[in-house]
Every structure is written in C-alpha cells, then in structure tokens.
Specification:
Blueprint lengths: L1 H30 L15 H10 L7 H10 L3 E13 L8 H7 L5 E16 L3 E4 L1 H4 L4 E5 L5 E3 L1 E6 L4 E5 L22 E6 L7 E13 H4 L8 E5 L11 E3 L5 E8 L7 E5 H11 L8 E2 L2 E6 L1 H9 L12 E7 L4 H5 L6 E5 L2 E2 L3 H10 L5 E8 L2 E8 L1 E2 L5
Antiparallel strand pairs: 1-2, 1-4, 2-3, 3-7, 4-5, 6-7, 8-9, 8-11, 9-10, 10-13, 11-12, 12-13, 14-21, 15-16, 16-17, 17-18, 17-19, 19-20
Helix pairs in contact: 2-3
Length: 400
C-alpha cells in the first residue's frame, strides 16, 4: 500500500508537469502569431489594387498585389528573337606570304556566321506596336515576336534610336491585342515597388520583384559610354540578359520604365529607361522619323577649386585651370559646334544661358532640352579671363 500511494503520487506529479508543459507550449505558439491588425500593409498600394489583392487571392498574403499587377501587364509582354549575319576575318599567315599569293592570288579570308539574340518588349498599341531596346534589334536581319499565348509573328523595325536605346517594332496580328498600361515615371519615388517582367536567359514570362533603389542615375554612373542621353531608374528587382526591352512595372500594374542595363560588377542592381522619356521617343520612331539630339562636341569633367589646384600643381599638366566650380573641357571634337565657336581644352564652363553649371549631367540636360540649331550662350573661365561664347547646336548624327 505504501508503494502504491507513492506510485500514485508520482503519477499525479507527472501529470501535473505534463499539463504545465502543454499549457506552456500553447502559450508559446500563440505569442508568435502576428495579429492581422498589427501587420504592416504593402506601401504605395491604391485602394483599387488593395481591393483586387483581397478578391484575387485571399490566401496570397501581402504580396498578392504583385499577382494583380502582373495579370494586368503580363499578356502584353512579348519575347523578341533576332538573327543577324556577322562577317569575321579568318587570320591565316600562310596566304600572307607573297610566294603563295603569286600562285593563288588574293583569297577571301572571311566567314559569315548567324548570330541569334534574345530580348523582351511589350505591346503599347492594339495595332501591334511593340516597344523594346534598340540594342535588342540592332542590325537584325530577322525579327520574330512571340506573344504570351504562344503565337509568333514576324516583326518589322519601324525605327530605332541608339542614343536613347529605344526601338519600335510592328507586328501584323489584328487589332485586338493586349496592351500594357503606361504609367508616369514622374510620379515614381525611391522605395516604390518595382516589378520586372520579361524573358531573362530565355526563361519566358519571368517575374521578379524589388523596389526603386534610386532615380536619375546618369549614363556615366551606369557605365554606359558614348553619347547616351539618359537618366535611369535604378532597381534591385532582378534583371538579367534577356530582360532588355521588357517593362518595369509599379504596384498598380503600370509600366514606369523599360529594363535596359545591368552592371557586370554588381548584383541586385538594374537600370530602366523612364517611361515618360520613352513615350516621346516612341511617337517619333513609329512614324519613321529620326530623333533629334542636339550636340555641342565636348568631352567634360566636373571641376572644383580644390581639384583645379591639384591639377595646377602637377608639373606634367600643360594647362593652368581656373579655380572655380564648373565643367572642365577635356576634349573638343573637330568641326563640332564647340570647335567652331572657339572653345578650347582647359576651358571651364560655368554658365549656360544664365544657369549655373557644376556637373556634366546638368550641361547634357540643357543641351538635350534645346533644339537642333538653337544658339546657347556659354560663360567660360579661361585662366584669369571670363569669356562669353555663343554656340549653335548641331544634330548629333551630323558630326563624324
């Protein structure tokens, strides 16, 4: 009896501990759940998108607005396949020998190869107008456009502009095609949702999600040389080769940019052309017009008094640069408007049409906003002298 009572007490003690553990487990589980009233909603969602979020997918969580946005724009996103013929020289020192050339003559040593390319685009007009990047269709002998529903059509390049890297392609597929709704890049803010849709690496209909990382990123900062006249939307939505020409979409399912560039030395950084800039260019390209880009013909570098003092102290520097804030002219294109107006290497541009200039991007924007043939008034510091120089812009492609 004594042993039984002790056993009964042990059982009661065991059951008591077991119940305590069970209640503790229940308490711990419920304390980890976030009440719905405390969960933060996705930012920048309009009431329309919020309603479509709840009606489209009640179980999709806070990201179901992406589903609504992609469903709105996705049917208009296309895949663009291209083929181009490239000619390459075949090095062969055997036929460089004059002895053999006496017998065989000059034998062509070139081969032609078919190069295939892949990109993205989107329909912006029901008649079959597709907007994409110029580098996607540049020098293509054949362009084919595949819709999301699987239909494929031959594409005709109506126009392309290398400076802004934009092109318009026409397909004949009737007049009832899905159209991507175009938003406004002027309303975009850093931190807004950014959704990239396209065909990266041939993986059709791929969607990636991120935010707008920054705005007005210059071509120089992106790493694009030449005469690019663009300020990009930067995003961390994954962009890869094949995304070029595809849309960057906001949380409402509206196109805010055209994915066009990535940095090879970075991860999670992509760049898109603002849609407001693309709209005006596309209107000209679809009419087959040449896009006007005013040009002055200088290579530039930002200068400050401190930087000028360092350059002046360099014994190898052939110039004495004015110690002012402005744009240092480091190159003048022969026969350009700048050369004809008398601008020299070493001049510092401080004002254009009465506007203070401290960065190269500011000068590029002023020139791009002007008209071809328009006269601009430059204030230049040349050593200790201040000069006023009139300069008439020219069309970029008119200058070799």
């Amino acid at each position: 009896m004594i042993k039984l009572s002790k056993l009964s007490g042990s059982i009661r003690q065991f059951l008591t501990h077991l119940l305590a553990i069970a209640f503790g487990a229940i308490f711990t589980f419920t304390s980890l759940q976030v009440p719905a009233s405390q969960a933060e909603p996705a930012p920048n969602l309009s009431m329309e998108v919020a309603q479509s979020q709840s009606s489209a997918n009640m179980g999709g969580g806070s990201r179901s607005f992406v589903t609504a946005a992609v469903n709105r724009v996705g049917p208009a996103v296309v895949r663009i396949d291209t083929e181009r013929t490239i000619t390459r020289s075949i090095p062969d020192p055997f036929f460089d020998d004059p002895f053999f050339r006496r017998f065989f003559g000059d034998i062509p040593r070139q081969s032609q190869q078919q190069q295939r390319g892949l990109g993205s685009g989107f329909i912006f007009d029901r008649s079959g107008l597709v907007l994409t990047n110029a580098h996607v269709v540049d020098k293509a002998d054949r362009v084919s456009v595949r819709l999301k529903d699987g239909r494929t059509f031959a594409g005709q390049v109506l126009g392309e502009d290398e400076v802004t890297d934009l092109a318009v392609v026409k397909i004949n597929a009737g007049n009832d095609l899905p159209v991507a709704p175009l938003g406004s890049s002027a309303n975009v803010q850093v931190g807004d949702w950014a959704i990239a849709v396209g065909n990266p690496l041939g993986l059709d209909n791929t969607v990636t999600l991120g935010i707008v990382s920054t705005l007005r990123r210059s071509s120089a900062q992106v790493g694009l040389g030449g005469n690019r006249r663009l300020e990009f939307i930067q995003t961390d939505a994954a962009i890869n080769p094949g995304n070029s020409g595809g849309p960057l979409v906001n949380g409402n399912g509206e196109v805010i940019g055209i994915n066009t560039a990535i940095r090879g030395d970075a991860m999670g950084i992509g760049f898109a052309i603002p849609i407001d800039r693309a709209k005006s260019i596309a209107a000209q390209l679809q009419r087959g017009e040449q896009v006007a880009h005013p040009f002055i013909g200088v290579g530039m570098d930002d200068i400050t008094p401190e930087k000028a003092r360092r350059l002046n102290a360099d014994p190898n520097s052939p110039l004495q640069i004015a110690e002012v804030n402005g744009i240092l002219v480091v190159r003048v294109v022969p026969n350009s408007p700048a050369a004809n107006a008398g601008i020299r290497i070493g001049d510092v541009i401080t004002e254009v049409d009465g506007k203070r200039i401290t960065k190269s991007d500011e000068l590029l924007n002023i020139v791009e906003a002007s008209r071809v043939g328009q006269t601009l008034q430059f204030k230049i510091q040349r050593g200790n002298r201040t000069l006023q120089i009139s300069l008439r812009t020219a069309q970029l492609r008119d200058i070799s």
